[in-house]
Inverse folding.
């Protein structure tokens, strides 16, 4: 590797302390407390030993200006080992907003890939936009240019897509808490980016464990590197670092291994530190947001009837002593009226199939909410909602949702309380919220799924098992016990696995959607006031409290918080929350004021 | 409170505008009207009463010139009466809720909106000429005794019209109604199949037409649909063709796709054919894919599409 062997602040804490001190003490020249510009990478643009007329490129930590009538010579720099730029006679020029090009003079003498350079106290040539002359900084090894500077393709926060981070057509400004979020860069170069020299600075003073860092300070030493590859890097702002409330602009630079640097790429956001009311999962009283999944609702029964090309599923009567969820599993053929006893661990085939469904449901929910302080449980925690639909967040340790049968209004897959910023625990098991049932309504998908056409994924999956569709229910084939116990692995065993997995995943998508509402998704309006819910202009097909992001998901997958849901797209491998919703759930973005 | 309605189980909705489940809304409704919201009253913090002037009674309004539609403001239902707009409303009787909540009988009758997506489309200045209204009237007439042959023919004609939403609704409705499908004649089926094979822009529509023709088990439908694989690169179409093949031809479907695959020169043709092959979920398909280079992205995608545990193992995606 040819390039800069820049001192790594991570490895040399003393270097951090020194540079911090220098930066903090800066401010001369009208800089107003900003860090002074420093050289971040340097490259000799030539081959062999440098000669008069060759070019040296110095890339600076920020956009710079050149003082008119001055030259950039040895007197402005600190060169190692008695090196010299020679007798420079031509004024320097700006090769980019932050890179200065120097034409070397006669007597030039330095060794590429060995000689180091930094700005010296005598610099009177290079200054930043506020007029502050550069001085000091870490000594940088002069590399040999590969001819092409690296470029930063994208900067964002918390991995939020451009369409949702304020830089897209939908407008707005991404709002983040004081810390906890990531800065994410995507970049490229014709050879390789030096991931150890990535630089991120802010337009504001940032509080760190080493004290306040003035604007322009390289913050990377204070951030936690999440990843850094040849094309992308991510740095988390840890709890020991805090950004102040208000507008911020992050400025990022990358260097390649040949000593060339990118131009600064910026990202503007708004910081609003959390308070308990706005933080979705404040941990003062509850360590996490717990969701209890309640399968016990029993308000009706179901019948099946003839329908050309399918079967008609209808509700019938009232409570009958069997949970509606269990009855729908029977209709689907995932369980049997005559289960096979002692299939596994003393459980019969119905119990094994149901347990597998619930395990897969929990797995899928965990996948969708990965990184969020949210857990799902099948065991009801202590405490009761009584007649209340919502209780203060600290009044009870969980929210709950019913996974059940039919909705109040035709076509609903689920209904839940909308709880902006999640200040309350919510009971989405109510059966009479001013006349409406709350919960997840699996009857809707079962009923429509049994209808023609017969070539849908739903029909091809459950037609094998649903008695009303001519199938043989799991447990009605004598070898199903072996299949459920994984001791017989034939084609039907595969179909059993697929049916249970599909229905569990579909249920998980609907459950994730409804629980998402009850944790604050998707507030209407652009950031910082909302999460772009109901923006039908920029996200066609959105509606009140929902956002449809067709362009952000591959064909066959969907945003979980879309206003409507197809069975096959729900099962898509890339189905999930959009990046802004996920950032909100991970407490890396916040809305409101 | 928020609700999540269901789209048809058979297709992805990614390319569609609203309106794709209008037919379900019409069928499930107790009343279908063109209404204009003219007033709003808050009953309590949980319930709002919207007064609707009836512009056109498609069916079920019982001669009333105005009705009340219930709305739950805290529930953020994604379909609710829109201020001063004329829309088609698919409504369910809410008299039981009204009685329980002691709503004044003078403001009745009371309804709530069905939740099917697209079941509340905006209606133009001339309701009688609005495509959604005409579709609703066609279904209403069918329910009240219109000749099945006439209804089927009208739907077939609607299924070939330019209006993207209505042609999709008509196509799906025919697919779901075997009794009406049976009334269509050979010429109509030829036209529908030709459109199914020729359409390349509106993939959702093409997929719906493919499902319709497959449901009718038209001769040669699978072979005709295969031709578009590659011309249409949307994976949902390939998946649909694969499922249709399995439903109509079983293991033989993989053989047919394999024959076509051997002559596929273009990368996109090959990728689409492989995906359809995987989607047949047949043993023949798995055996064929197993013999191919699993490092080939298209082969890997096809194996992922195949739902057998052996296929999942082959690409390292088998869960527990």
């Amino acid at each position: 590797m040819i390039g800069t062997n820049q001192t790594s602040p991570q490895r040399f804490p003393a270097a951090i302390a020194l540079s911090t001190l220098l930066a903090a003490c800066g401010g001369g020249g009208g800089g107003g407390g900003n860090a002074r510009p420093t050289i971040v990478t340097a490259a000799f643009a030539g081959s062999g030993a440098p000669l008069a007329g060759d070019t040296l490129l110095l890339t600076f930590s920020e956009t710079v200006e050149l003082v008119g009538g001055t030259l950039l010579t040895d007197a402005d720099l600190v060169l190692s080992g008695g090196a010299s730029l020679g007798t420079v006679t031509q004024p320097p020029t700006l090769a980019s907003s932050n890179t200065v090009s120097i034409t070397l003079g006669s007597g030039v003498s330095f060794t590429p890939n060995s000689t180091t350079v930094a700005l010296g106290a005598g610099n009177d040539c290079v200054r930043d936009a506020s007029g502050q002359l550069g001085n000091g900084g870490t000594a940088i090894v002069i590399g040999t240019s590969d001819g092409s500077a690296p470029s930063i393709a994208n900067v964002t926060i918390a991995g939020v897509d451009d369409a949702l981070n304020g830089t897209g057509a939908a407008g707005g400004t991404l709002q983040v808490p004081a810390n906890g979020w990531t800065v994410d860069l995507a970049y490229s170069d014709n050879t390789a980016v030096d991931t150890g020299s990535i630089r991120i600075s802010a337009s504001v003073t940032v509080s760190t464990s080493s004290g306040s860092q003035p604007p322009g300070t390289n913050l990377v030493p204070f951030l936690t590197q999440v990843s850094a590859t040849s094309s992308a890097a991510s740095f988390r702002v840890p709890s020991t670092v805090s950004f102040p409330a208000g507008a911020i602009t992050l400025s990022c630079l990358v260097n390649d291994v040949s000593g060339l640097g990118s131009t600064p790429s910026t990202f503007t956001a708004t910081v609003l530190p959390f308070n308990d009311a706005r933080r979705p999962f404040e941990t003062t009283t509850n360590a996490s947001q717990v969701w209890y999944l309640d399968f016990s609702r029993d308000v009706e029964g179901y019948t099946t009837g003839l329908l050309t090309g399918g079967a008609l599923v209808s509700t019938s009567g009232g409570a009958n002593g069997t949970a509606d969820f269990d009855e729908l599993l029977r209709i689907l053929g995932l369980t049997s009226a005559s289960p096979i006893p002692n299939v596994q661990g003393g459980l019969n085939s119905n119990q094994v199939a149901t347990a597998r469904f619930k395990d897969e449901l929990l797995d899928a929910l965990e996948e969708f909410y990965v990184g969020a302080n949210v857990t799902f449980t099948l065991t009801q925690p202590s405490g009761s909602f009584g007649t209340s639909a919502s209780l203060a967040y600290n009044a009870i340790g969980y929210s709950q949702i019913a996974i059940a049968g039919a909705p109040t209004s035709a076509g609903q897959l689920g209904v839940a309380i909308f709880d902006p910023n999640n200040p309350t625990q919510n009971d989405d098991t109510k059966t009479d919220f001013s006349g409406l049932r709350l919960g997840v309504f699996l009857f809707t998908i079962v009923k429509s799924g049994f209808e023609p056409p017969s070539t849908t994924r739903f029909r091809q999956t459950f037609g094998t098992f649903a008695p009303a569709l001519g199938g043989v229910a799991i447990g009605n084939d004598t070898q199903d016990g072996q299949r459920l116990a994984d001791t017989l692995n034939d084609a039907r065993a595969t179909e059993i696995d697929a049916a249970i997995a599909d229905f569990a995943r579909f249920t998980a998508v609907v459950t994730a959607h409804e629980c998402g509402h009850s944790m604050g998704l998707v507030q209407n309006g652009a950031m910082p006031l909302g999460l772009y819910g109901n923006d039908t202009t920029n996200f066609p097909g959105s509606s009140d409290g929902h956002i449809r992001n067709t362009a952000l998901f591959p064909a066959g997958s969907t945003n979980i918080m879309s206003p409507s849901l197809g069975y096959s797209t729900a099962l898509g491998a890339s189905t999930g929350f959009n990046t802004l919703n996920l950032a909100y759930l991970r407490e890396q973005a916040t809305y409101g004021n | 409170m928020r609700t999540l309605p269901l789209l048809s189980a058979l297709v992805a909705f990614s390319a569609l505008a609203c309106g794709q489940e209008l037919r379900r809304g019409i069928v499930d409704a107790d009343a279908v009207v063109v209404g204009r919201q003219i007033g709003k009253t808050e009953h309590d913090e949980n319930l709002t009463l919207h007064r609707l002037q009836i512009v056109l009674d498609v069916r079920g309004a019982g001669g009333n010139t105005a009705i009340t539609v219930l709305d739950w403001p805290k529930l953020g239902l994604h379909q609710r009466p829109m201020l001063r707009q004329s829309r088609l409303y698919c409504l369910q009787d809410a008299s039981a809720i009204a009685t329980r909540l002691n709503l004044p009988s003078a403001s009745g009758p009371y309804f709530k909106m069905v939740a099917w997506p697209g079941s509340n489309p905006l209606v133009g200045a001339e309701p009688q000429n609005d495509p959604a209204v005409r579709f609703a009237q066609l279904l209403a007439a069918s329910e009240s005794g219109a000749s099945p042959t006439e209804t089927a023919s009208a739907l077939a004609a609607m299924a070939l019209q330019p209006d993207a939403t209505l042609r999709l609704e008509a196509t799906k409705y025919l697919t779901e109604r075997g009794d009406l499908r049976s009334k269509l004649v050979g010429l109509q089926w030829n036209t529908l199949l030709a459109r199914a094979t020729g359409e390349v822009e509106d993939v959702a529509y093409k997929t719906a037409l493919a499902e319709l023709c497959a449901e009718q088990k038209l001769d040669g439908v699978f072979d005709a649909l295969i031709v578009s694989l590659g011309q249409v690169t949307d994976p949902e179409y390939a998946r649909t063709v694969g499922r249709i093949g399995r439903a109509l031809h079983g293991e033989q479907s993989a053989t047919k796709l394999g024959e076509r695959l051997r002559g596929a020169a273009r990368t996109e043709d090959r990728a689409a054919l492989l995906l359809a092959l995987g989607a047949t979920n047949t043993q023949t398909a798995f055996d064929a894919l197993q013999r191919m280079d699993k490092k080939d992205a298209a082969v890997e995608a096809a194996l992922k599409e195949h739902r057998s545990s052996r296929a999942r193992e082959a690409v390292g995606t088998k869960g527990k």
